Amino acid sequence: MSTLIAAPLDMTVRDGFDAEACMNCGFCSATCPLGVPILPRRLFRYVLFGMDDAVRAETETIFSCLLCRSCEQSCPAGVHITENVRLLRGWLLREGR
Amino acid sequence: MSGRNEARTEPRIAVYVCQCGGNIGDYVDTNQVVHAVKDLPGVVVARHAMFTCSDSNQQEMIDDVAREHLDGFVVACCSPKLHTFTFRGVAERAGVNPYRVAQVNIREQCSWTHTDDPTGATSKAMKLVTAGVERARLMKPLHPIEVPTTPRVAVVGGGVAGMRAAIALADVGLEVHLIEKEPELGGHVGKLGAMYPHGTVGTELVHRMLEEIDRRPGIEVHTGAVVSAKSGTFGNYRIAIESVGLRTEVTVGQIVVATGFDSYEPATGEFGYGSPRVVTLPEFRRLLDEAEGPIVRDGRPVRSIAYIYCVGSRCGDRTYCSRYCCSAAVHASLLAAERDPSVRQYHLYRDLRTYGRNEVMFGESRKRGSYYLRFADDDPPLVSIDGERIRLTVHDLLTAGAELALEPDLVVLVTGMVPRANDELIGALKLPVGRDGFLNEIHPKLRPVETVVDGVLIAGACQAPKSSAESVTSGLAAAAQAAAVLRRGVASLDPQVAIVDSGACDGCGECIGSCPFGAIEMTGTGGTVVATIAAAGCKGCGACTPTCPRNAIDLQGYTDAQVRATIAGLLAGRAT
Question: What is the ipTM metric for this complex?
Fold first, then answer.
């Protein structure tokens, strides 16, 4: 069953969510001290492709992030990964159910 | 047989056996090789060296010439492909005729091939070097053939590569015939809007080039014209230019072929092609170039676009990457974003290659509403058209292989370049065509604009897919190569060509058909007809020599006597 790509989810803060620059290199996942089960890059693609159910299914992971920024330190594309995670938490609080 | 007992002055020859570090020395006992040949008639110096091509050894060779009054060298080392010119250069600097150097290949033919058998390798090297000495004893001094050249160039193809080459050639004082099949110059770029990476507008660029051409009286432009025939020899070719039934013949020193490419045309139904909302990249560019404001296609606003990359490239018979299309598509998406910043664009690609500085455009496009989805080589996107609705499904490797669907307003098939059907010209100029259908250079890095046909150069996208900037660069390279030959006024050609003993020739004409270069013709001298070989046309292949029933043809540098002596040397070479 395929998922129809829709407009990106509205993260409310204009231009705040900046995962477009992600080039899928995987540095973020490699440096995550928690070894979060879902790669941030995959999570962000769910957002960009408007896949709201897929994002909701990762609620646990999104709230388990330490916001330690070690991923952000090593991101060669300069994506503000932890800020994006915070925006995602806000979205989940509004749209989670 | 080798004429060893003939009464004549024996030439004085030096033999150098190279160890090539360990490449030869680890398997071939070079000392034994030296011993095997040092007492052969004519050999006055024989020794081995760690690297015969080294500066110090080259100097020793030069010193040997002065001390021993040498007439020639035998160098037993690597392939003549590598060092023929090195050792000819040494000979020249020492005052020895460069065509009295015989190179014997004991690396590729002995040490590298017989690593399991050093004794056998050594024995084979002895035979080969003995044969080399026998050949060298019969070497005669030869001198390059000097041919005056015509200071005029034919440039076939009036796209950006050809136009730029013509301008450059005119600027160095050569006359140019610029020949274009279409009614106008300009080619593909002449119909384009802004091009990557600097946003140069194609139509404006071509307009500027046309002005430059107008300003140069040395450039004669032939539009609606083709080259239908070529004859003559290096530096002085006769070509026929045909235009609406009119045939003109001109003599040119060099020919630059810059005939460009065709865009790949998808089959109907290929990724939905045929639907008004499925277009190729060139069609999309026209859509972008011809209007302003929000994009409209087929009377409907376009709010989302899906690009499918590598359409027609890297599949089936076309195994090559078309190189320019990734960057061109990414650039087109930036132009689309400029027209309508709210348009959403999805790029479905196999491998994205926005090489060099084009990477900047790739980054920019991601910031301006372009999303990239990657599909596997064997799992391309599926396009289904249901009335008004176009639906694409793709397994996106960047979203963990999830099956995603898109319903875009427009699908752009990112089509590449295919070789242009040009059989008439390819036949007339005997152009070398590669497996991919594009024209072949001699070496992509070392001799990038020369072809195996002497004096015929290639430039632009007729050679391989290229961007406009790369085409212009190669047009300039071809111009530089043509000018380097023609500005000297004379060309020096290899004297190792076939010659006819006109006393022995009975004019039977057997040889004419054997020459692949059409260099032999029958000429009358004092009532008799004999074969004459144009030295500038002969490539020294030797195909004609065995066809002569009277043995009247000999190949200089490889005469029948030398070949017999070589064979005798191989048979006589002492093996341990």
Answer: 0.87
